[in-house]
Design a protein that fits this description.
Layout (H helix, E strand, L loop, with lengths): L1 H27 L4 E2 L6 E2 L4 E5 L4 E5 L1 H4 L18 E2 L5 E2 L1 H4 L6 H19 L10 E6 L1 H9 L13 E7 L5 E8 L4 H18 L10 H18 L3 H9 L6 H12 L1 H10 L9 H8 L27 E7 L3 E6 L2 E3 L4 E6 L2 E10 L3 E6 L4 E6 L4
Parallel strand pairs: 7-9
Antiparallel strand pairs: 1-2, 3-4, 5-6, 8-9, 10-11, 11-12, 13-14, 14-15, 15-16
């Protein structure tokens, strides 16, 4: 019996010794982490990459930290098995690939919502561009072609995300074409669309509006975008906007002035101020804005729809934008059509249903009304 007890005690001692060794080894094993880029578990030292979309640092493994390809949206590293690569070479991580604005119809809906927010913001300073805007979602090649048509561009075409072109067709009313690059996440699309709508609002006032420093002009459009983002609580995109050096500090100066003197004072300065550039020194900004000290703040009024010109009695082709390769859109009365679109446009005192069948170089083929009667409208010769 004593021999059996001795063996039992020896067995317990060995088991305790093995448990101690295992516990010590476990305690010395590095904590396992999951890479927020490739998803693999790793036990070595990790690295942090900053996610621009979500505005936070995310842990990645050693291998991912050495990757040279980054997500075009959030800047996180992505490997060879990335889930989304556009034809122009832009690459996206798995998270952002699910939310990209790539479809014209989806973009039309988002643009309409942004246009509504901008109208609320600038509705006291009419006219606010609305029905006279054609919106185009362009891929990179098409976007660069539109950019090449600008006169005296001052920005790198590979760094901008939106373009606003203002023109008159056959001497008619002002028209705007707003082109936004595809492949943006919704918050970035919102900021870009709001910025370009700010340009359209400014263009409505040219040449009556005084000349502003180019950075201040861009800063005001960024202020419009910042206000729209603020109303939607898009904090990460607001931070990304403020971190940009695009306006050389003018966005920060305009936001500071807006928060101190209210938005209507900034608008008055933009329209009637003496200087062309807003000094970041708040004492300087105060002197620039004091000219409107006696002007009463406008009484808030319910937002009303902008005045709309009377509709023509016939269907008119007001313009064609785009190319056969990149895709065309046609402006018919107050409607903007891509091939296949079915919309109601204003005609006289009412509206008529119109389907766009084909957009040609100088004309558009339509099916009109319940009968589907075919009509071909031609551009007026200059």
């Amino acid at each position: 019996m004593s021999a059996i007890l001795k063996l039992a005690k020896a067995g317990l001692f060995v088991a305790a010794l093995l448990f101690t060794f295992a516990f010590t080894a476990l305690a010395q094993t590095p904590t396992a982490n999951r890479c927020e880029s490739c998803g693999k578990v790793f036990a070595t030292d990790g690295h942090y990459a900053h996610d621009l979309v979500r505005d936070r640092d995310r842990l990645v493994c050693q291998a991912c930290s050495l990757l040279t390809i980054n997500c075009a949206a959030c800047n996180m590293p992505v490997g060879e098995k990335n889930p989304k690569r556009l034809p122009d070479g832009r690459t996206y991580c798995a998270t952002d690939a699910r939310n990209l604005v790539l479809d014209q119809r989806e973009a039309d809906h988002l643009f309409h919502e942004v246009k509504r927010d901008v109208a609320r913001l600038l509705g006291e300073w009419l006219p606010v561009p609305d029905a006279n805007i054609t919106f185009i979602l362009a891929d990179k090649d098409e976007f660069l072609r539109y950019f090449a048509e600008l006169k005296n561009p001052i920005h790198d075409p590979h760094l901008v995300l939106g373009i606003t072109r203002t023109f008159r067709i056959n001497g008619g009313p002002i028209q705007h074409a707003i082109i936004v690059l595809n492949g943006l996440v919704p918050a970035q699309f919102t900021a870009t669309a709001a910025h370009e709508l700010g340009h359209a609002w400014m263009h409505e006032r040219t040449p009556a509006l005084r000349t502003l420093n180019s950075d201040t002009l861009e800063g005001f459009c960024e202020l419009v975008a910042w206000k729209v983002l603020d109303g939607r609580h898009e904090e990460s995109e607001k931070k990304r906007l403020l971190a940009s050096t695009y306006t050389h500090s003018q966005i920060q100066s305009l936001i500071a002035a807006e928060q101190r003197y209210r938005f209507f004072r900034v608008i008055e300065w933009v329209q009637n101020g003496a200087d062309t550039w807003l000094d970041p020194d708040p004492r300087r900004a105060e002197r620039l804005l004091v000219m409107r000290e006696a002007a009463p703040a406008p009484v808030a009024q319910p937002l009303s729809a902008p005045a709309v010109a009377s509709a023509p009695d016939t269907l008119l082709l007001r313009g064609i934008l785009g190319t056969a390769k990149g895709g065309r859109v046609a402006l018919v009365n107050d409607g903007t059509f891509a091939p296949g679109d079915k919309l109601k446009v204003r005609l006289g005192e009412g509206k008529v249903a119109v389907e766009c069948l084909e957009i040609r170089e100088q004309s558009v083929l339509l099916a009109v009304g319940e009968s589907g009667e075919r009509q071909e409208l031609f551009l007026k010769k200059k």
